[in-house]
Amino acid sequence: MNFRPKDIVPQLITVIAVVLIFGFFTYNAQINMENRGIDFGYGFLSQESSFDVQFSLIEYDGSHSYFRAYLVGLLNTILVSVIGIIIATILGVIVGVARLSPNYLINKFAAFYVEFFRNIPLLLQIFFWYFAALRALPLPQDAEAIFGIFFLTIKGLYVPAFIWQNFNVFFYSIVAAVIAIIVIRIHAKKVQESQGKQIPVFFISIGLIFILPLLSFLLGGVSLSFEVPVLKQLATTSFIYEGGVSLPPELIALTLSLSLYTATFIAECVRAGIQGVGKGQKEAAASIGLTPNQVLKLVIMPQALRIIIPPTTNQYLNLTKNSSLAAAIAYPDLVLVFAGTALMQTGKAIEIVSITMFTYLTLSISISILMNWYNKKIAIQEK
Amino acid sequence: MFKYLKQLTSLVAMVAVLFTFTTESMAAKKSKTLKNTQKKGFVRCGVSQGLPGFSNADAAGNWTGVDVDVCRAVAAAVLGDANKVKFTPLSAKERFTALTSGEIDILSRNTTWTLSRDADIGLTFVGVNFYDGQGFMVRKSSGITSTSQFKNGISACTNIGTTTELNMRDFFNSKGISYEPVAFEKADEVVAAYDAGRCDTYTTDKSGLAAQRTKMKNPDEHIVLPETISKEPLGPVVRQGDAVWEDIVRWSLNTMIEAEEYGITSANADSMKTSDNPAIKRLVGAEGELGAAFGLDNDWSLRIIKQVGNYGESYKRNIADTGILPDRGPNQLWTKGGILYVPPAR
Fold this sequence. Notes:
Chain A is α+β, with helices and mostly antiparallel strands. Chain A contains 11 helices and 8 strands.
């Protein structure tokens, strides 16, 4: 194969131009920083951070390094993104299906929800849920217990903590259940392909995931008790709950606003996907004797998912990136902890902003790769 | 005769050379920042996003405050008009980047002078225009009257990106109290969250607490605790590497403080030109050539005093009369029991 200059030259010029532009900006930044006596380097990451963070998934306090603070922020960003994506997906699917419901009330309510929440700027919604909720929620001493063990207060949602005995046995029982389910699925597929018999995989799976962990309680010596939060007085009018787990209101408000906002877009994706499957498909499937459930599961959904997945991937990416608005309401995400406090305390603006950008890029690309892989898996395989 | 003529010529030549040298060095002294400022016709000044008494904009967009007055003094000195200032409101997070990147030329934004800020990140602090310290605000109804009553689990609202966050940790650690830090990016949100009851205490510089208290729904329900947990000398900052500009800003601030010391006010500045005290005459430009050192004319300090006023006038106008901190505390002249003490202008 021989290359013609016409094929290579424009691309070569583009590459050179990109390199030159980046080179110019890097060089410029270097000169300017040198002139102003600013050092460049990532050495600060190992220094002691000396600031505390309100909410962390890993052990952290000010005596840890800036790198640890970065991890704290990153994990908090991932936490709110994962919870947000799960809730937004469930809500989005429900609302998307509801928009196609023949029931007038359900249909119109879903439409109203979508139009209302997707047309208000997200930052405003975050402020609304945070400050409106803060004003509306009771002080800890006035809070009514929900089911006797949950307390929703202005300082957060207090839930009982699990106290496990022999937690590892319980964990292994779940792993065993998952492996058993996978084996049964593979076996069921084989049986269906060779004999045409169907095994009720779904019910067996449900049974396994409950029974095996239950057995670990009865036979494996696993026990579980709850530590219920208890009210503690700090001053005349100042109380908190001690014990149990406390979810800060910042996390709750952020998750709520992100999921409610993103669910509207996912709902529209779902609606488009279902409507995008031809009516003839459903009728044809029914005519060969499939039950309505089978029609949905085997004919409609596989085709609808092809339409739903790519735009929904965009929504997942948006949600992850939008989580950076957390800084406005004091949720310690990557932007607040690392590109905020750490940046200020070290003054390493270029280094920290570049790390933060690279981190978001990596997060987004990981989600993209995962969703593309899933998309490929469910795409029609033409034989 | 001829011999004398020769001597005379060499003398003239020497004088001429000397003169060119002096004008040469004068021009060199004209710093890049000063040159740019005079070319643009305004001083670029970074201030807060709204802290009553320090830098706060009214509905018409006019900025007032003691931090604002430092920039106005520099404008009066180098441009002849205290109103030729362009103010850029900055968050705590943005402020140093704005200065080092050259977006502003003076940062006068209740900024604490610390070693690492001065030495590390390309900044130079030029002086202190307010001696502050970090304190705590609590609700009166809580019954707390001293930080010794703080208990484990207390939640504290504050701003991110300030020395406050670090002092708070040092304080609670040294007392062995566990606490929940709730850090917001903007002061308005800190106040809103604390006011709503999210936090038991609100901590920042005491002047800031006093100023923000005026923004609360019901200011009388809150008190500032007497303890001060840190030293917070607040002052203007310039970029590193322009020594002349640094001197101009430093001595503009010093002029305001020294003017108060000698009793020179915006009202009596002109009449002070005939004073018997040479120190006063130097400050109002009637004696000496002080401005020449910066490449400025000799009336630079007189303009500061006439257009902006001395430090006491600025304090009274912005902080005392607005009810924020009527008592000057440490921000009183050294001659009156405070710690305001500046090197002599001579």
